[in-house]
Amino acid sequence: MTAATTVGTAPSPLDERAVLDAVPGRLLIDGEWVDGERGAIEVADPSTGLVIATIADGSPADGIRALDAASRAQAGWAATAPRVRGEILRRAWELLQERREQFALLMTLEMGKPLAEARTEVDYGGEFLRWFGEEAVRVAGRYGPAPEGTGRMIVTQRPVGPAYLVTPWNFPLAMATRKIAPALAAGCTAVVKPATLTPLTTLAFAQLLLDAGLPRGVVNVVTSSASGELSDAIMHDPRLRKVSFTGSTPVGVQLLKTAAEQVLRTSMELGGNAPFLVFEDADLDTAVEGAMLAKFRNIGQACTAANRFLVHESVADEFVARVTARVAALRVGRGTSPEVQIGPLVDRRAVETTSRLVEEAVAAGAVVRTGGHAIAGDGSFFEPTVLDGVSADMSVSREEIFAPVLAVQRFATEPEAVELANATEYGLVAYAFTADAARGQRLIDAIDTGMMGLNVGVVSNAAGPFGGVKQSGLGREGGLEGIHEYLETKYTLTPMG
Ligand code: NAD
Questions:
Q1: What is the DSSP letter of 206?
Q2: What totals of helices (H) and strands (E) does the chain contain, helices first?
Q3: Which H helix or E strand runs over 47?
Q4: Residues contacting 20, CB < 8 A, separation 6+
Q5: Is residue 271 lining ligand 1, measured as CB closer than 6 Å?
Q6: Spatial separation of the C-alpha atoms in residues 138 and 132, rounded to whole Å
Q7: Are 66 and 206 in contact (CB under 8 A)?
Q8: How far is the CA of 168 from the centre of ligand 1 (A)?
Q9: DSSP 8-state assignment for residue 2
Q10: Taking the CA of residue 58 as centre, how many other CA atoms within 13 Å lie in the half-sphere pointing to its CB?
Q11: Of 303, 383, 400, 414, which one is the catalytic site residue?
C-alpha cells in the first residue's frame, strides 16, 4: 500500500509514548548500550515540531570504540557457519514480523510517513533479512585447470572486513536492513551510523538483532550530530575495509574522497532525478496510478521518486487533468491518523527548499494546477502540488525535489523524450508507460539508469539489484548482486600434482 491507496488503514493499536520509551536511546558498542561523549541529540516529530526523544550524541572517539568492537568481532563472525549467520537473520526477520506495529509507529513518529506506508516499509525492510539470510549459504567459488594444464585455479570469496554503514532518514528501517543484512550474511561486522534526524528505528532494530542472537560487537551503532567528524575518524582507521553510504550525492562525493585515502571498498546509493515518461499509446489509467505511486510514496521523499514527468503532447492535457484531480483529493496530516495519505516533510528546511523550487518554476512560466504552498502551522507540511508547463531548464527539473510536487513537461517524439530523460547527471531509475513492447525494449536500452519501471511506478524489491549509474552511485543493494558488495575474491594457483 502506498500514498495513493492508504485511505481507511487501521490506526496503531500501540501507545506512542510507550513505543518511544522502549527505544534504547544510547550507543551500541560491543553489545552494551552506552552514553555518548558529546551529550544528547533531540529527535522531533516533523508533524508537530515537538521533541519526542533524546538520544546519545556520539563523538569520533566513540566511533573508534565502536570500530574496536567490530574489529575484535570480525574473525569470529567470519568463521561462524554461514547457516548460523543465515538463521540469525531469519530470526531477526521473524522478530520484525512480531514487532511490526512498533517499528511502523516509530517510523511515522520520527519521520512522518503515513502509518500504512510505514507498515509497508517494515515488510520491505524485513525482506532484506529474509533474502540475505537465504543468500548467506550460497556464497560460491570456482575451481578449474589453468589453460596450460600445469596448475589448478581456485577462486574463493571471503568477507571484506569491518564495514561502516551510513543511512539516510527517508527509509529509516529499509535502508539499514539493506546494508546490515548483506554485510552480516557475507561475514562482515559493522559500525552503523543512522541519519541524525531519524535514529530511533535503527536503535530499536539493533536491539532486535541482539534479541535474535547476534553476538556482541558484530553490529555497533553510533548516533552523532557531528556526522562528518565521526565518519572522518572511522574512515581513516586502517582496520575499516568498507564503506556503504545511502544519501545525497554531495555527501557521497565527500565520502568517496575520504575513502580514496585508505582505498576502501565503497558502495554509494546517491540522489536521483527520475524521469517518468508517458507515451501517446500508454494506458492512461495505469500511467496515472503509476504516477501517484512514483511521486507521492513517502511524501515524495524517495531517491526513486519521479522528478520529471515527460508526457507526450497528445495526451498531456488529459494526464494533467486526471492527476490533478487525484492530487487535489490527497489527505494531508499527521501520519498516525488512518485517513492521512501525505504526512509532513522531514523538516522546515525541506519546506523552504520546496517553496523555492515551486516559486522559481512559476516565475519561469510554470502553472500551478493544484497546491503550491507550504501549510502554516507547527508541522513541516507542503500541499500536494501539480505544476504544468514545466521546462527542462527550470530548477525544479534539474534538482531533486524530494517533496509532493509533480512537475509536467511535454514532448513530441520518442527521441526527444529519451534525450530529455537522459539530460541529467543522475541515473538511478526511470519509469516509462507505453503499450508498445518494441518501444519498451528500445527504452530499456536507451535510458541511462541503473533501474527501470516499465508500466509500473515502484521497482524496489529485495530480490532486485537496486542502484544507479552516473552520479546516482556505485554498486548494487539487494538481489544476487547485493552480497558481493561485502565479499572479496581471492584467487589461488597451485601446481597440478
Ligand atoms: P544526506 O546525504 O544529508 O545524509 C545521509 C547520511 O549521511 C545521514 O546519516 C547523515 O547524517 C550523514 N551525513 C551527512 N553529512 C555527512 C558528512 N559530511 N559526512 C558523513 N556523513 C554525513 O542525505 P539525506 O538527506 O539523509 O537523504 C536524502 C538523500 O538520500 C537524497 O538525495 C536521496 O536521493 C538519497 N537516497 C538515495 C537512495 C538510493 O538508494 N540511491 C535511497 C534513499 C535516499
A1: H
A2: 15, 24
A3: none
A4: 52, 53, 106, 109, 200
A5: yes
A6: 10
A7: no
A8: 4
A9: -
A10: 34
A11: 303
CB of 303 shorter than 6 A to ligand 1? yes
Torsion of CA 215, 216, 220, 221, to 10 degrees: 100
- What pLDDT digit, counting tens, does each position of 231-258 carry? 999 999 999 999 999 999 999 999 999 9
DSSP code per residue over 254-320: HHHHHHHHHT-EEEEE----EEEEE-TTS-HHHHHHHHHHHHHGGGG--TTSEEEEEEETTTHHHHH
At residue 494, the 3 state secondary structure works out as: strand
- Residues 6 or more apart in contact with residue 248 via CB below 8 angstroms: 168, 270, 271, 400
In order of their start, the domains of the chain are 11-270+473-491 (3.40.605.10), 274-465 (3.40.309.10)
Nearest of 36, 33, 40, 198 to residue 106 by alpha carbon: 198
Output the pTM of the full model. Answer: 0.97
| One-letter amino acid for residue 455 of the chain | N
Give just the sign of the alpha carbon dihedral 390, 394, 399, 401. Answer: negative
- 3-class state of residue 202 by DSSP: helix
Is residue 303 part of the annotated active site? The answer reads yes
Taking a C-beta distance cutoff of 8 angstroms, is the pair 90, 133 a contact?
Answer: yes
Query: Of the candidates 101, 67, 100, 433, which has an alpha carbon nearest to the alpha carbon of residue 286?
Result: 433
pLDDT digits 0-9 by tens, 55-85: 999 999 999 999 999 999 999 999 999 999 9
- 188 is known as an active-site residue: no
The cell numbers describing 234, all together, are 572511522
155's grid cell: 577462486
